[in-house]
Inverse folding.
């Protein structure tokens, strides 16, 4: 089986701003939610039945206590923010495994799910659907890969090395040195991408750098590495079979109507009939 892990927050942003651009600034109350559901259904229709979606139920996490400048929910468009929790409910009603992250971030959820799936001998491949460079640290050879839907890049370990100059396991070291503007930490002044890759390839992990390399900025680098290191211990599911999509729940017909897309219900039923080999029960 192939397991597909989706960054629900990224997909919501992608659909929200894509629709806003297409509709010339006009927002539909649940347009982005419907867009994400259609994306997931598209994967199911192609025969991909093992799917999990991680979302940021809240934006802040334990990392905000470690670094004052870490990203928050400030500045998120209210029309977009209003669709965060409805997305989680709609995915669950559609029968999709969804993990609303509270103390951790969606990225931690994806990393934790990938860790469990990678350890299951029944799993042939794990695909993490997000362009976020943080998730590159989860890539393992060609078994766990990162998929960038926008650029259509599929990065295995060789792809990560080609893009960033370091092995996946050293991505937290790399990000600690160069910083991550999206997450709100600056990295180490004077160290760019090429220098960071060279130092890591020469010395290994930041903890193994000679004392003279960072010149008094070691503590900052280690803090930023902690921010960049994704957690893999979130308790999301006990068995990979819990990610199997078995069709929409009875509640989904009402959910589709609320989203203003009865076509979603029809599409979900057809997908279930195709996957399960028989018509699903109607809600």
């Amino acid at each position: 089986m192939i397991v597909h892990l989706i960054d629900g927050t990224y997909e919501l942003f992608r659909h929200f701003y894509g629709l806003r651009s297409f509709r010339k600034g006009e927002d539909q109350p649940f347009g982005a939610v419907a867009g994400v559901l259609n994306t997931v259904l598209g994967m199911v229709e192609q025969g991909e039945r093992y799917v999990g979606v991680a979302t940021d139920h809240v934006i802040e996490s334990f990392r905000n206590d470690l670094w004052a400048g870490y990203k928050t929910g400030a500045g998120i468009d209210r029309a977009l923010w209003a669709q965060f929790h409805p997305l989680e409910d709609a995915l669950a009603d559609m029968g999709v495994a969804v993990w609303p992250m509270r103390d951790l971030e969606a990225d931690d959820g994806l990393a934790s799910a990938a860790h469990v799936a990678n350890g299951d001998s029944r799993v042939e491949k794990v695909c993490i659907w997000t362009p976020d460079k943080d998730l590159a640290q989860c890539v393992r050879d060609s078994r766990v890969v990162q998929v960038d839907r926008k650029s259509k890049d599929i990065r295995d370990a060789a792809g990560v090395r080609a893009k960033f100059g370091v092995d996946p396991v050293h991505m937290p070291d790399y990000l600690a040195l160069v910083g991550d503007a999206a997450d709100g930490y600056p990295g180490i002044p004077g160290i760019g991408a090429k220098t960071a890759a060279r130092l890591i390839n020469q010395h290994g992990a930041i903890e193994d750098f000679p004392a003279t390399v960072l010149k008094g900025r070691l503590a900052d680098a280690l803090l930023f590495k902690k921010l960049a290191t994704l957690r893999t211990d979130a308790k999301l599911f006990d068995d990979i079979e819990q990610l199997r999509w078995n069709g929409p729940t009875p509640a989904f017909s009402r959910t589709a109507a609320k989203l203003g897309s009865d076509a979603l219900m029809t599409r979900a039923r057809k997908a279930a009939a195709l996957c399960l080999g028989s018509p699903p029960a109607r809600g």
Q: What stands out?
A: Confidence is low (pLDDT under 50) at residues 278-283.
